[in-house]
Amino acid sequence: MRGKKSGLWQQFVPVDFLVPESARRWRPLVEDALQYIFTHLSSQRRSVKMLEQMQLPLATPPEIRLLRLISRMPGLQKVGQVLARNRRLPAPLREALSQLENGMSDVTAPEIRAIIENRLGPRLEKYSVNLESAILSEASVSAVMRFKWSNPGREPEQGVFKVMKPFIPDCFAEDMSLLRDLGEYLATREPHYRFAIRDVRETLEEVRRLLEHELDFTREQATLEHAARMYRSSFGIRVPRLIRQLCADGITAMSAEPGVKVTDAFRRWPIRRERIAEQLIEALIAVPFFSWEDAAVFHADPHAGNLLYDEPTRQLVVLDWALAERLERESRRQLVLLAAMTILRNPEGICHAIEALAKSEQNPKALIRQHVTRLFEEFESPGVLQAMMLLDELALEGVRFPPALFLFRKVLFTLDGVLHDVAGHDVRIDHVIAREFLTRAAASLGWFHAPLKGSDFAVLARTIFFATPAFIWSNLPTRRVSLPALG
């Protein structure tokens, strides 16, 4: 695997550039993974990529070469979108990967128009559809084109078609096969790494399953309607309205939503950007988290390209519901308790919550306690992100968690990067979640407290009673005393 051919990609994109020094223990795994993918890619696709790299100027930066290398590879592009706002990556790499959010260009407008005209046929005339000449934006799997339409006897409306790119079925099938085989290959090399590979394999399986949802337009359309109902009572949050009359196989028609990318909204107004960050947390975490549903739907792809902000109406618009997942109520309950116990510095409570979340065949109590102790040694005031990092560390040690919980952790890390680009360090996820929960509870006179049980409040009250004095005392020398927020 380390012959001349396997090392060619490293001449263009060195692994040291992709993986920062702070995560250097991941470099052997990343190197093996990329070698495997590009040596097992079909000869035709590999030849095209090598030719593209050779044609680039010698001084082309590695981040630009990386974008060309993963072009027409929807699986790797999706990973790049998720990593684009990861604050641990070098700034040039993050900036380049952010182009994957809505700056891709690997299909033409005539190709997309032909697909729409072929699959909708006479419906285009029935509903007076007038297509724009250019593509509005592109994602890893689909392209978006604006149009005007009208129901007979009604005023014209603006809409957008989300259309699967014509090359996706063939490329996607190979990418999915590569990800499956990659998990098995990495497992054979586990002795060469200094952490458990099981979570990586399950991660790849979860990514494969979710990316397959990208091709299921019928599922996405149903999820979009569900999301519209979920946010119906949420002020300042909306999702596109599905246009059923113009949907087809590989085509989703929906209302056109005005707005700018959320990271570009109100650039000269820090206070308003703080409010935008709070709306992001409410929409993507609080609403699904505190749902009464047994299995609440949450958006699993919250990169900045899927988040618009309508400045005149002060509304957040959440796009692209192809990647969505459900989190069971009990898992959400334990996550709330984990966050609360982390904020309140209760190691015993943290251990209980993690043990309840774990799905390990072995008893991981000693390992969990060891990592919880280290958490408080490394962080003075840990919050929800540190709690999620703790779960990641335990997963690398072999502790198993439900697949949906893995995805939710990744959503939080992606969202954290977006929040930082919107409002810097001024907004904390756990504080906003706590406020949203308390607001809902107060407005319902205590009746609304999902996903917590009544007995949980006694545990939290006891924790607050004993934790607050220590918390205040530890903060006296450095800043004004304030009571800790739950969550």
Biggest beta-sheet profile: 5 strands, antiparallel
Query: What is the percentage of strand-forming residues?
Result: 5-15%
Number of strands: 11
**Rg calc:** 24 Å
Assign a percent range to the helix content.
40-55%
Mean pLDDT: 83
Number of helices in the DSSP assignment: 21
Termini distance?
47 Å
Low-confidence runs: 1-6, 472-487
User: Which structural class do the helices and strands define?
Assistant: alpha+beta
| Count of discrete domains | 3
Q: Give the overall silhouette.
A: globular
Task: Write out key terms for the chains shown.
disordered N terminus; 5-stranded antiparallel sheet; Phosphorylase Kinase, domain 1; globular; 4-stranded mixed sheet; alpha+beta; 3 domains; 487 residues; disordered C terminus
Descriptive overview:
There is one protein chain. This protein is α+β, with helices and mostly antiparallel strands. It has 3 domains: 8-102 and 169-209, no CATH class; 107-166 and 216-256, Phosphorylase Kinase, domain 1 (2-Layer Sandwich), CATH 3.30.200.20; 326-475, no CATH class. 54% of the residues lie in helices and 10% in strands. The chain contains 21 helices and 11 strands. The chain has helices at residues 8-12, 15-18, 27-40, 43-55, 62-69, 74-83, 91-97, 99-102, 109-120, 123-126, 168-188, 198-214, 217-230, 270-289, 329-343, 347-357, 365-378, 384-396, 403-423, 429-443, 454-475; strands at 130-131, 137-138, 142-149, 157-164, 237-238, 251-255, 260-261, 295-299, 307-310, 315-318, 324-328. The strands form 3 sheets. Strands 1, 2, 3, 4 and 6 form a 5-stranded antiparallel β-sheet that branches. Strands 5-10-9-7 form a 4-stranded mixed β-sheet, with helices on one face. Strands 8-11 form a two-stranded antiparallel ribbon. A hairpin with a 3-residue loop joins strand 2 and strand 3. 40% of the residues are buried.
